[in-house]
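Please check this:
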Amino acid sequence: MPRGKSFRRSEAAKKRLAEWRKVDVEPQQPPNASVSQSGTGKHHAVNQWSKSLTGRQHKLVLPCESPDKKFVLVVCDSHLRAIVDGFVPMPEGSLSFGLMCTPGACAMELRTELLHAAVPRTPDAVLVIAPSNNLTSSRTIDEAGADFAKLLLSACSRWPNVCVTDFAPRLTVEVNQQQLLREEFRRVAARMGVRYFPFAEHFPMDWLKLWSKDGVHLSDSDGMPIFAGLLWSVAYEFLHPPTPKPQPAPRASPPRRQVVPKVVVKGEVTVPRPSNPFEWTVVNKGRKIDATPLLESFIQPNPVWFSSSVLAAMDAAVPSHLPSPDSTAVPRSSKRPKVEHRRTSARQKVSARALPVVKPVPPPATAHLKVDARGEVATTTVAAPGGDLQPVVDLGVQHIPC
């Protein structure tokens, strides 16, 4: 499957980055005239030391034990040589420094010296100066970072409170290559949880008197005093981290007064007419169209509705052409009617109420209706020719509210 344009660009970028990150084994030469090979500062003649396990000169200087001072061990290459020989003193204060110096050693050689160093007491802090000799001893930046990680791992496994300080810049190596090595060392330290302190900004490349004539080591007159002061400041800051400033408590804002707006109406105010509850109002799409007053009914409302069968029975008992019951009362019989009670099922009751059956009453007979206070017909009796009252039917009157 053919690759896209983005894939080819990515591969080309990776190749350019790999070429850029390579460090040649040959001695570094400045690519242009802007990088000088020699400094203008003074440097004392070096003293000869005895060789150690790595075949390089090595020296370990430990201070006298002082209960009121904290012990700091510094591990470095030849940049500590002037301090170890006593040409450049360390700043005095509440810290005492032990120096382990191996000139020309890379990260792996410093690791060997660190593991076999005879340190009688545990230091309060260990400062590992990043090895600048890996600029020439390592083939690539990744290889230098792997060796530096092993050095830090050995230091952390032997002593607590380990930190890393930056190496002093060189005039004989491109600034970009030195920056790449610093960034790799910083990533390794961050990955291992070790604090890293930068130094490069304190040594501007255009101030040539900070370096000796070889362009690699700092001058004893100007560069090394700055380097020693930076070591002391880093050790003190590492042992005495600044306490975070307490955050001020948020100030409680006073409660705001709620102002109720006062509405002042000027001019005529239209007061809506109170609505009449006895009027019908027809509303169409939000507008009142018509309001018709509710006329009083001249017919007295009947609270009870009767079925057609009941009305027929009532009309048979009391003809409609006779006077109203208010003026003519129906005579009551002194004998109480006899009512036969028969047990019927619920289904028979429903059917009887739905379709009531009325027995035919002879024409000469007289019917009597008993109406209660609610207007319901309770019992219908018929007077036989012999004078006895016999129950005809129980009219299933249903009360229907108006």
